[in-house]
Design brief:
- The strands form two sheets. Strands 1, 2, 3, 4, 7, 8, 9, 10 and 11 form a nine-stranded mixed beta sheet that branches.
- This protein has 178 residues and is α+β, with helices and mostly antiparallel strands.
Length: 178
């Protein structure tokens, strides 16, 4: 079984939490499925869930280098020099990243409002970029954009390999494989 979920902001990628945080159990009714990979509590978008350990391994193991596509809102007007740095790979405290595909993006007209909203500051604009990674370290996108001088404000995963968000609203699921 393979399920796509549009994970809302503020939801943990687990089914239980002793501290009362929102979890996947609020959105996924199927039993014995587990997240194939993770999204941070403060990230949104495509999360795949499966009951098949081999499939989960293919989706998440770094050796398979599944492309993951993100839409990222950053603090400030990201410039070509920062995008070039992301394309080359950036040095993080746990080593250099692989090169990423990085392009300017427009805020999509289909984008749902975030609850709570991203902070707004009159004196500092924001901008959007599309980022495609082939590795998955802890909070990697956020650390990469911060390393090039543009901290992430909002992070939405749109695609993992061939699987895409494709119009799922936050909290909605779609069965990809029975």
């Amino acid at each position: 079984m393979l399920i796509a979920l549009n994970k809302p902001y503020g939801v943990l990628c687990q089914f239980t939490d002793a501290d009362g945080h929102r979890t996947l159990a609020e959105f996924v009714r199927e039993k014995d499925v587990y997240a194939a990979g993770r999204l941070d509590h403060d990230s949104e978008g495509l999360l795949l869930l499966t009951d098949d350990g081999r499939l989960a391994h293919r989706l998440t193991d770094p050796r398979h280098k599944q492309a993951k596509t993100y839409l990222v809102q950053v603090d400030g007007e990201i410039d070509e020099a920062a995008l070039q740095a992301l394309r080359r790979g950036v040095a993080l405290n746990d080593g250099p990243t692989l090169p990423a595909a990085a392009e300017h993006a427009d805020e999509p007209d289909w984008l749902w409002p975030r609850d709570p909203p991203v902070r707004f500051r009159k004196s500092i604009p924001t901008s959007w970029l599309s980022l495609v990674l082939r590795e998955g370290r802890n909070r990697q996108v956020r650390r990469m954009t911060a390393a090039v001088g543009f901290p992430t404000l909002r992070l939405i995963r749109l695609r993992i390999g061939e699987h895409a968000l494709d119009g799922l609203a936050p909290g909605e699921t779609r069965m990809l494989l029975p």
